[in-house]
Amino acid sequence: MRQILALTLFCAPLAAQTNSPERQVAGNVITSQHDPNARIELPTSVRYVGADRWPLYDIADCELHAFVEADAQKNVQRLYWVQFEGYLPSQPTLKHDYDSSRHTSLSGVDFYLDTWVRVRDARTQKGSDREHVEALIRAKGYTMPAGLMYVRLVRLLDQEKRKELMIIYGEDLAPAGYTAADLSEGGKSFNQWPGIEKGLLERAKQKVALGSASLASP
Hints:
Elements: H1 2-18, E1 24-26, E2 29-33, E3 37-41, E4 47-56, E5 60-70, E6 76-87, E7 103-106, E8 109-119, H2 129-139, E9 147-156, E10 163-172, H3 180-183, H4 193-207, E11 209-212
Antiparallel strand pairs: 1-2, 2-3, 3-11, 4-5, 5-6, 6-10, 7-8, 8-9, 9-10
């Protein structure tokens, strides 16, 4: 029993170290030394709400960092969500399969592009990366808005398509005068979404700056 206890106490710090975030955050800047070697700079007005690293659905090593811009009552106005992800060695056959035809350039680097709107109380899958990022935000006392519009940028980092960098930028919909239902497909203002989306993407690209030595085409 004494030997088992000693082994448990020895292994616990190693497990905690393995699950600790590897990227460094200083103010509004994330520095990554691998996968990719990059520097991601956000506006100086952001507030860092924290990081999490865990085995996402037990198939991928996932590390995310979350930042917000909020009002004096801690209502979130803008969300910045940066995620580093790679499939675990125990899942050798898995790879990312993005079939989106939409692309955009951020700081001269090509990314897959998606946009969408979402209501605050929409169902969140248990164990998902969204569940983790929203838990970080709530833990710091911030409140998500009733509706948000999002830009998601994804960059595959290797030929095998097993590693990715994901950057998500979200904005409160209220200042635009719309709800998520208004701008969803079939909503009363869905025809306005292309113009709103264009402005959202332009703001995202203005607010996120990417410097990298290892983001050439995989």
